[in-house]
Design a protein that fits this description.
The structure holds two protein chains of two kinds.
Chain A: H1 6-10, H2 14-27, H3 34-37, H4 55-64, H5 70-81, H6 96-103, H7 108-120, H8 136-151, H9 156-164, H10 167-172, H11 176-188, H12 193-202, E1 206-208, E2 217-219, E3 228-230, E4 233-236, H13 239-247, H14 252-264, H15 270-282, H16 288-296, H17 299-303, E5 307-308, H18 311-321, E6 324-325, H19 330-334, H20 370-384, E7 388-389, E8 398-400, H21 402-405, H22 407-410, H23 414-426, H24 432-442, H25 451-463, E9 470-471
Parallel strand pairs in A: 7-8
Antiparallel strand pairs in A: 1-2, 3-4, 5-9, 6-8
Helix pairs in contact in A: 2-18, 6-7, 7-8, 9-13, 11-12, 14-15, 18-20, 23-24, 23-25
Chain B: H1 15-21, H2 29-37, E1 53-59, H3 73-79, H4 108-116, E2 120-126, H5 136-145, H6 155-165, E3 181-183, E4 205-206, H7 226-243, H8 247-266, H9 269-279, H10 295-309, E5 315-319, H11 332-357, E6 367-373, E7 393-399, E8 412-413, E9 416-418, E10 429-431, H12 441-450, H13 457-460
Parallel strand pairs in B: 1-5, 1-6, 2-8, 3-4, 3-5
Antiparallel strand pairs in B: 2-7, 6-7, 9-10
Classes of the chains: A mainly alpha, B alpha/beta.
Chain lengths: 475, 476
C-alpha cells in the first residue's frame, strides 16, 4: 500500500498539509494546532507552514522513540485523574487507556497504548465488558497483555495464541463449543460446524465455572486422547494444540489484516478492501505495529478514506487544537456504562461507541442513527466547546483563553479570526458564504469586544456542521 | 469474588454491527432498491381502523427455548452430558414445570397467565431448514432481513417500502407521518438497506429507554440568541447540502428540532408512568401493570406508551438485551431463568397496559408484540452449565387481537422431539413428524401480510406463519 511520502506531502498546499497532518494525528487522538503549524503573524490569507515536508516522517519517528518522561507522566496522571472525591487513590481499568493516552506525548509507549486500545475495540480482542462474566479486571489484564506484547515486539501469531488461552478469553466465549467456534470465526472466518465439534472435543476438559465460583477457567484431567484433523492439520489432541494450530494457520494474518482494514476503512467497498488487504499481506507483516503503521501513513488512509469520526477523535483531536482540557472525572464519565448520563457527562455508550464493551467489538461504522448522533453532537457542544477557562491554572473542563490570546491571534481582524477558528476546528477555511454571514454576527449581541464570545459563536456554528463529525477525502 | 452487576439491556442494537463484525458484506443500497422495486406485490387495502403497530423484540444471542418448552425435559435430562437440577423433571421433584410445560421461574408463570387470558400464543417449532447456520452474525442478519438471503433489506425497511405502495393512513400521506419507525436499539440490521426511495419520514428514529430528550438544544452561555439561531441553522443546512458526504448526519441533525418537539409534546417517561398509574386504578396485586425495573422494562414501557399515544408509529424495534445477552454458553441455569422471568413479567405488564388502554383507545388492539431470536440452543447442558448453539426455537406473540384471525391467541403450536444420545455433547429439539413448523422468515411474512401484502413470500421466500393452525391441547 503506497505510503504518503515526504515528496507527496510536500506537493500539498499549506492548508492541505495541515488537514492531512490532523487526519493522522486525529486518528491517534492528538492534533497539531493552527498556531503551531502555521506562522500566523502575517494573518491567514496566505498561510505559511512552519512544519516542513518531513512532518509526517517526524511523527512516525516520534512513535518509535521511547518517552523519557514516561514514568513521571503516568504518575502525574494518576495524581490528577485517579483520585476519589475524598482524595484517596482509585483504580479504574476502563478509563485508564484513554486517560494515559491523553496525558502522554507521542512516543513508542503511546503507540503501544493506542494499538492495544484499537485492538480491544475490535472483535479480535474485545474484553466484552457487557457480559456478566467479565469485569474491569479482565479488561485491565487484556490491555496490559497487549501493551506488553507490543513492547516486546511479539508477533501477531504469538499475541493471538497468548490471548486465546486466557481466562479473559474464556469469560467472553464460555464453553468448548462456544470458544472454538468463535475463535475460528473471528481469526480465520471459518464457519464449519463439523470443525466446531472436533475443536470442542479437543477442548473438552476446559470450562468456565459459574458466578458462585467466580467465573474461573478450569482445566480438568479429562483431556482428549484422540488425534483430530482440523484446521488443515492433523494430530490436534488437546486444547493448546488447537489454539496453536489456529495461531499458526496460513489464514490468520490475512483475516486479521482484513478485520483491521474493515475497522480503519469502514466505507470502502469490497474490491477496495481486497486491494488494501492484499497489499498489506504482501508485505508479510509480523507485528500489529507493522500493520498499523503501514495503514496510518498510507495515501489511501490519509487522502482517500472518508469516514465518520469516533468520539475520541472529535473531542480529543479537536481539543488538542483549541487548547481544551478535560476535568479530572472526564474519562471516568466518558467510559461509564450508563445510558442516562447528564448533559455534561456524555458517555461513549450513549452514542453506541462504548469502549471495550461489546462482545463483538465496536461496529466498524460509527453509529449515525438520530440518537447516537445527537449524543455525539452533544459531546462536542457541551464538553468540548462549552466553557472558556479564564484561569490558566483551572482544573475545570473547557478551552483555555490561550487559544484566543496568542499575540498573532489578538492582532487578527474578524475575517482572519474566522479563518483561524475554522482551521482549528474543521481544518479548513470558511467559504465565502460562511464568511459573509459569520463576520457580521461576530459584532452583534455584545461580542464585538470579546474574542472568547466570538470564538463561542463560531464553535456553536461548527458543532452544527455534519462535516465536523466526519473525515473528508483528499488533501 | 465480587461480580459486576448484571448489565441489563443497556447495550443494544448491534444487529447490523454483528453482521459487519462477522465480515458479512454490507447491504448494497442500490441492489436492495432494485430488488424491492422489481418485486410484484399483491396488495390489499388495510382497514384504517386496524393499522398494525408492531413491537418487535429480538433476543440477541440465540435464546434457549426451554422457558416455553419443557415437553421433552425428561429425555433431555436423561441424556444431558451435565446433569440438570432435579426440580425440572416432571416427577415427584417437580417444582418448575407448569401445566402447559413452561418453566415456571423462567417466565413460565407469566406465560401461563397470558395464555389463559388469550393474550399470547407460542409457536414451539420455528426451525431453520433452508440454512441451519449456527453463526450469530449470519443468523441475526437473516432474521433481521426476514429472508435466508441476508442481503435483502431489513424488515423495517421493507415495511417502509410497503407503506409507500400501500398507505393505510387515509388522512395523511406517508411523508407526514410522525415517528412511524422507532428504534430503542440504535442502528440495527432490521433497518438496513434504506435508499432514496424511502421517504425521510419513514426512516427510523432512535429513542432512549427513558425517553430522554437529548434532541432539545440547550442554550449555552447565552448562545445563540433567537435571530442568530435561525441564521446559524440555515447556514449549517446549506453547507450540509453542499458537502453531500454522509447525508445521514445532516438528515439526523435536520430532524433534531422536530424530534425535540415531538417527544416533548407527545411522550416522556413521567407521562408514560402516569398513564400506567391511571390504568392501575381499581386494580391490585397480580392485576397491576408493573413492568419492573431495568433497561428492558423501561424500553418496553416506553414503546407501548408511544404506540398508544401515536397511531403513526407502526414499527418499534427493541432488543431483549445487547449482543450476546441470550448467548447462554455458561451458567445458563442461573442467568437465563432470571432474565426470561424479567422479560416475561415486563411483557405481561405490556399486555395488561395495552388491554386496559383499549377501553379508551380502540387502536390499542392493533398493537402486537413479537419475541424471537436468531436460533435456539443445544439442550444438553455443557460443562459450564450452559447451552451451546442450536436451531429449533420458540416464537412468542402477544396482543394484537384486531390483526389476527379469530382464535389466533391462546394457542400452543408445534410438538418437538429430541436428537442425540445419552452423554452426547450435542442434543437438540426438533419438530416432531407431522408437527407444524416454519422458518423464522415466516414471521416477517406474517408481519407484511398484516400490512396488506397478499404474497409476502416474494419478500421472504416463505409463506407466512400460519395463525390458523390447530393448537396443541391447552390446559387451563
Amino acid at each position: 500500500m503506497a505510503r504518503l511520502t515526504s515528496s507527496d506531502y510536500g506537493l500539498l498546499t499549506a492548508e492541505q498539509k495541515y488537514t492531512v497532518a490532523n487526519r493522522l494525528l486525529g486518528t491517534l487522538y492528538k492534533g497539531v494546532s493552527a498556531r503551531d503549524f502555521f506562522d500566523l503573524r502575517a494573518g491567514t490569507t496566505n498561510l505559511v507552514a512552519r512544519k516542513t515536508a518531513n512532518y509526517l516522517e517526524e511523527i512516525q519517528a516520534r512513535l518509535l522513540l521511547p518517552d523519557t518522561n514516561y514514568s513521571a507522566t503516568i504518575a502525574a496522571a494518576n495524581e490528577r485523574y485517579f483520585k476519589n472525591f475524598d482524595g484517596t487513590a482509585r483504580r479504574n481499568s476502563v478509563e485508564e487507556p484513554l486517560t494515559y493516552m491523553y496525558s502522554l506525548d507521542l512516543s513508542r509507549e503511546y503507540l503501544d497504548f493506542w494499538m492495544a486500545y484499537q485492538l480491544m475495540n475490535t472483535i479480535l480482542f474485545s474484553p466484552a465488558m457487557e457480559l456478566e462474566t467479565v469485569d474491569s479486571i479482565d479488561m485491565g489484564n487484556v490491555f496490559s497483555r497487549l501493551v506488553e506484547a507490543s513492547r516486546q515486539n511479539k508477533s501477531i501469531r504469538d499475541t493471538v495464541y497468548e490471548h486465546m488461552v486466557t481466562q479473559e478469553n474464556w469469560r467472553r466465549f464460555r464453553s468448548p463449543e462456544d470458544n472454538v467456534r468463535e475463535m475460528m470465526e473471528i481469526y480465520l472466518q471459518r464457519f464449519r460446524d463439523d470443525d466446531v465439534q472436533k475443536g470442542a472435543q479437543a477442548c473438552k476438559n476446559w470450562y468456565l465455572t459459574d458466578d458462585v465460583e467466580g467465573y474461573r477457567l478450569i482445566k480438568t484431567i479429562n483431556i482428549n486422547q484422540e488425534s483430530l484433523s482440523l484446521l488443515d492439520t492433523t494430530n490436534i489432541v488437546n486444547c493448546e494444540d488447537f489454539y496453536r494450530a489456529l495461531a499458526d494457520h496460513a489464514q490468520l494474518i490475512p483475516i486479521i489484516v482484513s478485520r483491521l482494514v474493515t475497522q480503519l476503512f469502514p466505507n470502502h467497498d469490497v474490491s477496495q478492501h481486497a486491494l488494501i488487504v492484499n497489499s498489506i499481506v504482501a508485505t508479510r507483516p509480523v507485528t500489529f505495529r507493522d500493520i498499523f503503521l503501514a495503514v496510518l501513513f498510507s495515501k489511501e488512509y490519509l487522502l482517500r478514506n472518508p469516514r465518520v469520526k469516533r468520539l475520541e477523535e472529535t473531542v480529543l483531536g479537536t481539543g488538542s487544537r483549541v487548547d481544551w482540557q478535560p476535568h479530572w472525572r472526564f474519562f471516568d464519565y466518558l467510559t461509564r456504562v450508563d445510558p442516562t448520563a447528564g448533559e455534561d457527562r456524555r458517555t461513549l455508550m450513549q452514542m453506541k461507541q462504548g469502549t471495550m464493551l461489546y462482545k463483538l467489538g465496536r461496529d466498524p461504522a460509527v453509529a449515525t442513527d438520530t440518537l447516537s448522533l445527537t449524543y455525539h453532537q452533544g459531546a462536542a457542544r457541551y464538553t468540548l466547546f462549552r466553557t472558556a477557562l479564564v484561569d490558566v491554572t483551572s482544573t475545570s473542563m473547557g478551552w483555555h483563553l490561550t487559544f484566543v490570546d496568542d499575540p498573532a491571534v489578538v492582532a487578527m481582524n474578524d475575517s482572519d479570526f474566522v479563518d483561524y477558528v475554522f482551521l482549528s476546528t474543521l481544518t479548513r477555511k470558511p467559504t465565502l458564504r460562511e464568511r459573509d454571514l459569520l463576520v457580521p454576527l461576530l459584532n452583534q449581541a455584545g461580542r464585538a469586544t470579546s474574542r472568547p464570545a466570538k470564538a463561542n459563536l463560531l464553535f456553536d456554528y461548527v458543532s452544527r456542521l455534519p462535516e465536523f463529525y466526519y473525515v473528508d477525502q483528499a488533501g | 469474588m465480587k461480580r459486576r452487576t448484571f448489565l441489563q439491556a443497556a447495550i443494544a442494537g448491534a444487529g447490523f454491527g454483528v453482521a459487519k463484525a462477522y465480515g458479512l458484506a454490507q447491504v448494497n443500497s442500490t441492489a436492495a432498491r432494485s430488488r424491492l422495486e422489481g418485486l410484484r406485490l399483491d396488495l390489499a387495502p388495510v382497514d384504517p381502523h386496524k393499522i398494525p403497530q408492531i413491537i418487535s423484540i429480538f433476543l440477541y444471542g440465540g435464546a434457549s427455548e426451554l422457558a416455553g418448552n419443557l415437553t421433552n425435559i425428561g429425555q433431555i435430562m436423561r441424556n444431558s452430558s451435565t446433569p440438570y437440577p432435579p426440580n425440572l423433571a416432571q416427577d415427584a421433584f417437580n417444582t418448575q414445570v407448569t401445566r402447559n410445560q413452561f418453566w415456571a421461574n423462567a417466565g413460565g408463570t407469566a406465560m401461563e397467565q397470558m395464555l389463559r387470558a388469550k393474550q399470547m400464543s407460542i409457536y414451539r417449532t420455528v426451525n431453520r431448514v433452508l440454512d441451519d447456520s449456527k453463526a450469530h452474525g449470519l443468523s441475526v442478519a437473516q432474521n433481521a432481513s426476514g429472508n435466508v438471503d441476508a442481503s435483502m433489506p431489513g424488515i423495517a425497511t421493507t415495511l417502509a417500502y410497503i407503506l409507500t405502495k400501500n398507505n393505510p393512513f387515509l388522512t395523511k400521506p406517508v411523508e407526514q407521518l410522525v415517528m412511524p419507525f422507532v428504534s430503542f436499539e440504535g442502528e440495527s440490521h432490521i433497518f438496513s438497506g434504506a435508499t432514496e426511495a424511502i421517504p425521510r419520514a419513514l426512516r427510523p428514529v432512535s429513542l432512549s429507554a427513558t425517553l430522554q430528550n437529548p434532541y432539545e438544544r440547550v442554550t449555552v452561555g447565552g448562545l445563540p440568541d433567537g435571530h442568530t439561531e435561525d441564521q446559524l441553522t440555515l447556514l449549517a443546512k446549506e453547507m450540509a447540502l453542499e458537502k453531500r458526504l454522509f447525508p445521514e448526519i445532516g438528515a439526523a441533525f435536520s430532524r433534531r428540532a422536530d424530534l425535540a418537539k415531538a417527544i416533548k409534546s407527545m411522550v416522556d417517561e413521567p407521562f408514560v408512568k402516569e398513564q400506567v398509574r391511571q390504568y392501575n386504578i381499581g386494580y391490585a396485586g397480580a392485576d397491576l401493570i408493573d413492568y419492573g425495573e431495568g433497561e428492558f422494562p423501561s424500553k418496553l414501557r416506553a414503546a407501548v406508551g408511544l404506540a398508544l399515544i401515536n397511531n403513526d408509529t407502526v414499527f418499534i424495534s427493541l432488543s431483549g438485551g445487547g449482543v450476546g445477552q441470550w448467548d447462554d454458553h455458561s451458567d445458563g441455569l442461573v442467568a437465563y431463568p432470571k432474565r426470561m422471568n424479567s422479560l416475561m413479567s415486563a411483557i405481561r405488564a405490556a399486555v395488561l397496559h395495552i388491554e386496559r388502554a383499549a377501553s379508551d383507545k380502540p387502536h390499542a388492539r392493533n398493537i402486537l408484540i413479537n419475541v424471537y431470536s436468531e436460533f435456539g440452543r443445544n439442550v444438553s447442558l455443557n460443562a459450564s452449565r450452559g447451552w451451546d448453539h442450536g436451531n429449533n426455537q420458540s416464537f412468542m406473540t402477544f396482543a394484537g387481537a384486531n390483526l389476527r384471525p379469530l382464535g389466533a391467541l391462546g394457542k400452543i403450536v408445534g410438538r418437538t422431539t429430541t436428537t442425540g444420545s445419552k452423554g452426547d455433547f450435542r442434543q437438540f429439539t426438533t419438530p416432531s413428524p407431522n408437527s407444524y413448523q416454519c422458518e423464522p422468515y415466516a414471521i416477517a411474512s406474517r408481519i407484511y401480510s398484516y400490512f396488506g401484502v397478499r404474497n409476502p413470500q416474494v419478500l421472504t421466500g416463505v409463506t407466512p406463519l400460519d395463525e390458523t393452525v390447530a393448537s396443541e391441547p391447552v390446559l387451563t
